[in-house]
Task: structure prediction
Amino acid sequence: MTSPPALTVHQLAKSVPGGRRLFHNLDLTVAPGEIVAIMGESGIGKSTLLNLVAGLDSADAGTISIAGQALDDRQDDARTIIRRDHVGFVFQAFHILPHLTLAQNIALPLVLARADTAASLARAITMLANVGLPGRGGDYPAQLSGGELQRIAIARALIHDPALILADEPTGNLDPETAERILSLLTTQVRASSAGLVLVTHSDCAAAIADRVLVLGPTGLTPR
Amino acid sequence: MTAAWQPPPTTAARWMVIGEWRAHPARLVIGALAIAVGVALGFAVHLVNQTALASFDRAVRTVNGAADLQIRAATPAGFAESLYPRIARTPGVAAASPVVEIVAFASASTTGTANPAPMTLLGLDVLRAAAVTPSLIGLPPDRSSPFDPDAIFLSRAALTAAKKNLGDRITLTAANTSRSFTIAGILANTGNDQAIAVIDIADAQWRFAQLGKLQRIDIRLAQGMNRAAAMAAINARLPADARLVSPENAQASSDSLSRAYRVNLEMLAMVALLTGGFLVYSAQSLSVARRRPQFALLRVLGLRPGALTVQIVLEGAIVGLIGAGLGIAIGYGLADLAVTLLGGDLGGGLLGRGEVHLDFSAPAALVFAMIGIAVAIASSLVPALEAARAKPAIALKNAGDTTDPRHRPAGWPGLVLLGLGGLAALGPPIAELPLLGYAAMALLLAGGVAAMPFLARALLAPLQNLSLPAPLDLALKRLWGAPQQAAVALCGIVASTSLMVAMAVMVSSFRGSVDDWLVQILPSDVYLHIEGAETAGLDPTAQARLAATPGVAKIRFLRQIPLRLAADRAPVILTGQPDPAASIPLIGRTIPVPAGEVAAYISEPMVWLYNLKPGDRMNLPLGGKSRPVFIAGVWRDYARQFGAITLADRDFTALTGDRTRSEAAIDTAPGTDPAKLITALRQRLGPVIGAQAMFAEPRQMRAVALSIFDRSFAITYALEAIAIVIGLVGVAATFSAQTLARTREFGMLRHIGVRRGQIMTMLAAEGALLGIIGVIAGLALGVLMSQVLIHVVNPQSFHWTMDTRIPWPLFAGLAAALTAAAAGTAALAGRRAVSADAIRAVREDW
Result:
């Protein structure tokens, strides 16, 4: 039996308040283990597309499925459960909770899903080692650099074996050298997990790690 | 429970809550303390009240024995003893015990103190009392006869007050007669806090001028007897000057003595708790606003909105739990301190100064703890719901202020609440308590706070067009553009200021009115009061002697006796005095008295308690009959909360047959020294009455009255001060949190060239503006609320009215202090924020 696509988007349409249409008839399929980069001008709707895929915003038309589970017509609560169980996130601004230890930050998706705390923390320690920060589970985020914080974010995105990872400008706040190392780490980790990765970026370097690079425009996604 | 309200995962919730508090322990401490103060005050006041009331109730039961029912005389003059055999033969009455009950004094010479020691003297028929009230019978230690006419039995309190031992001689004075007895034994079953003396009934009647009279009959009903039927049968046999009182009536009567005062104090304590609630609301709102992106992250990672709401409310509940636990402990300590320093009635003067034993009440502690937790939860609910409603994708990218200055805050929710408050103020009392008045206060407060965003913007709008220096302009634009945030900072200060102002206006009005009233009722130069003169006083011969004293230009004699009009109410005071219409402070219109009728002037509480008005007629149970009187007018009386009736001198004598008088108002002849006159008057009173006589000049009486007033409001002042301190702490906490949340804004301003001093000026200006708005709103709201206190709560609680007086100098000082405190606090909080590294501040994510 073959695995369902990590992400299926069909005939998606979205307008912003005031009536301006961002996109319509947008189709996208991301296979397990595939990395897709989405580029486009500022304000074209890249982040909005990511929010729609994450179930954080509602589309005007079209369907979205994550790991075979349709988001459409589901209430916010049900979409939250799908997001919790099947999606990982990496943000430009890292968004690491300052008052939790690094291990606790990484284990957060598991504990939110009511997994066993000790097991979750043990897995977070392993993930820390995987992202190159072994033995630092008890440290706090204030002790880390930007690159290290993004490693924590990558570990958190992968800890619960999601089907899909959504990364919004993951290297936007990093210097080129650190960005390169982070992209390399992200690629390695995603490939190892066989999750699909949707990467929204302005950076050609970041887009270079993708299997496919798509450009978002008013008519939808077109290959670059 | 629906899925939306499923609790948050325990581990995540624990990590978030503990992490937040570890990072910001001061916020937890301030929130918990705010709740603790409210709970502590509420619990302490309740504990003291309950303890004092239990002690008072015990005292009443001690004097009454354990009778099923009592017949009590309407006045201390008693009723005819011929009633006793009729009652004893009533069907359903198993046993009846006749009792003489009068106030007696152990003379000062025997106590060795300056003042005579008062005690309740009971005359009992030992054989009959044994069947009804055995606890009142004294037995000699040597088992000798309890029928010895020379024997007297004292309670331990009476023995202590008289400074006597078993076997000593004691001289008691009552009804203008002094008699000596031998202390034959102790009343072992009467407790330690009531001064009681028991002698044989025949002896009491014979020695103390009570022949043929009784003050009460104690009754034990036959077993299995229908109580209502027995009461109906007894009532049918009663003369007009006797009342059948059940233990429930007695309890209601004693409860009514201090009920309004107790409820008012408890409400005041709740006010402090409410102010604490606003502080928790401020803290939680700011905490939630600051952590908006963190909550958004949790939502993105899979925390459901309902679970997020529960988590934030849970934080509030834990703050409440800690505060409540702390509050109960502090409350118990406060109660102990209050009882030691102020007495069982917290200075109210309503329950006497009996010995009070503080008892910890677990159910009451639980109730007050639950109220504290509920206030904390309610205060967290609004911010929690706001956090859950926020769109995670937007919140994640807006770490700071998401307020849109174009958004106009609505004024209608506040106006609706204010309107509802106004309507509630028009409502009648419920169970003789101003519950709707308190609801009106709460609604007005909520309305005022809800209207703050609208009001803040409205007040700042005219300043928008002024050309101001950059820091002031920035401060103004910030407050104008983010009125909701301003309102969060303001709610604590508005709540505490308005409550303080309301109380201050009420107390100032009350004190001013009492002062005016004292001047009106004390026009003479010297006043005489005979202590414990219920059963006797100045007879006509003594009156003539006093009137003839050199230096007396004019003397007016008065008589005051308690008169029981209803079984379940405290007795009213019936006064006879010359020309009452000219000497009492009448309010409103007076009605001409129809020919042949007796004019009576009733005090304000009578209007409320007995639903009477000028032109009505009422019956007074005097001299064994119902005596009709015509109510000619109403007078203001702040001395007797439970009502007073004044008759003309001749009418009083005619209706009661009592020619004795218990008070005198004396105008001195020109050039007379009041002190010398008092000495001369005392000599003319003779040793027996002279020992019970108290002389005072109006100046002293006013000073004493006002000092009693101030003592009874001491607890009120303390509660007000606490409310203000809580409000100021709230302002400090709010500014501190808001300023720290704006570190990035200050970093940006520093980047573009704004000097550190200018930022401090900006923050001080923001603080001062907020302080001014808070003071204006607090003053306006407070004066509005004071009118509810003056015209609704006070008349419904204490049954008297007063004229509004606003203490402007106090308010000017308060306004200046609050504005300066707000500006200073903001600037202090700002110092910390601007000291942060500007670059790091701009880069900071949270």
Chain A touches chain B at residues 47, 51, 54, 56-57, 76-77, 80-81, 83-85, 89, 91, 93-95, 97-100, 104, 108-109, 111-114, 117, 120, 156 (CB under 8 Å). Residues 176-193 of chain A form the longest helix (18 residues). Chain A has one domain: 33-58+75-223. The two ends of chain A are 33 Å apart (CA to CA).
